């Protein structure tokens, strides 16, 4: 099947079926469809860029002071290989005796642990010097990759080794770090283990390979990296830093100079990689690693949002919907911010809010489609005000994608032009249509302006109904429908008089009409096939009004308005209008006689 043919097949078969499925099911089904779409977007990563923006925003809100800000743990410090140190000791990498000098200088401070975020993978002539310094310190942690460990002599002397394998997210930001990599502990975890070894009476709980799932730990960045105490390598080696500044600290040594080991955090566009492990140590010391919803719970959340939002919005007005549409995202953002600030939860923001928007949009499109369907049935039949009222009260008559059939009492109007056949034979088709449409337009306005529904045009004839589409059961309502019908007929007579004056000037045929009114039982609803529906009424009341209209040809001289009504209709209007009884007449197709009155005018 060619692409064009497939599109046509889709438009003709699948799309109508989909529209019918959505519009003939409860509103929550529309929300459910939006939720499913959102879950698909989640699975293919379409929400991820926006979630990253939400993540960064949460940290920025906390940093602004609106939420509790934990700040960096005072037990952590960084010794930085920065531009001044590079200027003093030359281009990196350095001889390993430089690090031995650092360890010797740090002995005066007695730090809890010293971690080198620097790889010592290749043998060096000065390895023995550094190995002795590491062994002499007894608290040094070294870094490794996933496949390569430090030089054996250095590893044997170290108190521990941790991996520094790290992969930033697609936007370049560092949000997570692997606690264990093939059972190898993270560099930051080993540093914290050294803290526990130095404080056996007050250790902090740490993850173990057996209970830590093979997933990343989400870093809860405590603050901007410039707020963490950072000392120049050269200043420490040359004794310019007071020993007490680093006493009992967890010291991390790393490259901070521009161009080396750069990462990005939610609070720093660019910073050194050593701060990632400083943040991890901070989180482990204080049990404040960020927590995220499991993927399954996030999917369940999204699947629940759509139906709930649709149910919440479906029966509300425009102002209420706008308020809810603006309020719900704000409530969700506020909730996410509070849980982040007080409990270190990173709730998804983009996907839930996106699902909310999708659900509201889908509901609006569904209702717009329903409104188009409803208005398609009524737009040519009623005045705009009535059409809007029909939409506002659609729940009373609209069900399963079409109008619900109703049994009701209404007043039916039938009217046509006298001698239309002979007139049409004397006019050109184009002139005839212009003449006829001018008449129909004028009469239709009189009907619609008084609450009537134009059911159909049958050539020169008009069929209209007063009392639809809403079912009227009270006597006063049915009476008002009958009064509106008579008032419309008199208005049409007056309008026709003015129209005939214009036709006389234009030398066009003058118009005379006859009208029949009857109030009775009928059935109203959608009539037609699935490809074309019309709103219409059927029943005995329609037949009686049609028969009555035809009688005007016989008694037109006795009826100033050419308006005949049945006794039942006259009973509703007799207090306002004068009537002359024509008699009890046997209408064609009726077994019983029908009492007929000619309306003479208002009392």
Task: Give a structural overview.
- The protein is of the alpha/beta class.
- It folds into three domains: 25-65 and 294-362, no CATH class; 76-287, no CATH class; 379-602, Alpha-Beta Plaits, CATH 3.30.70.
- It has 19 helices and 24 strands.
- Strands 17, 18, 19, 20, 21, 22, 23 and 24 form an eight-stranded mixed β-sheet that branches. Strands 4-3-2-10-1-9 form a six-stranded parallel β-sheet, with helices on both faces. Strands 5-8 form a two-stranded antiparallel sheet.
- A hairpin with a 2-residue loop joins strand 20 (513-529) and strand 21.
- The longest helix has 31 residues, at 475-505.
- It starts with a helix and ends with a strand.
- The relative contact order is 0.09.
- Residues 1-11 and 13-19 have low confidence and may be disordered.
Per-chain topology:
Elements: H1 3-23, H2 27-43, H3 48-63, E1 76-81, H4 83-89, H5 97-106, E2 113-119, H6 127-137, E3 140-144, H7 152-157, E4 160-163, E5 176-178, E6 180-181, E7 184-185, H8 187-198, E8 216-218, E9 230-232, H9 233-237, E10 250-255, E11 262-263, E12 271-272, H10 274-286, E13 291-292, H11 295-313, H12 318-343, E14 345-346, H13 350-378, H14 384-392, E15 398-399, E16 402-403, E17 406-417, H15 420-426, H16 429-448, E18 453-458, E19 461-466, H17 475-505, E20 513-529, E21 532-538, H18 540-555, E22 563-566, H19 567-573, E23 577-585, E24 594-602
Parallel strand pairs: 1-9, 1-10, 2-3, 2-10, 3-4, 13-14, 20-22
Antiparallel strand pairs: 5-8, 6-7, 11-12, 15-16, 17-19, 17-20, 18-19, 20-21, 22-24, 23-24
Helix pairs in contact: 2-11, 2-13, 5-6, 8-10, 11-13, 12-13, 16-17, 17-19
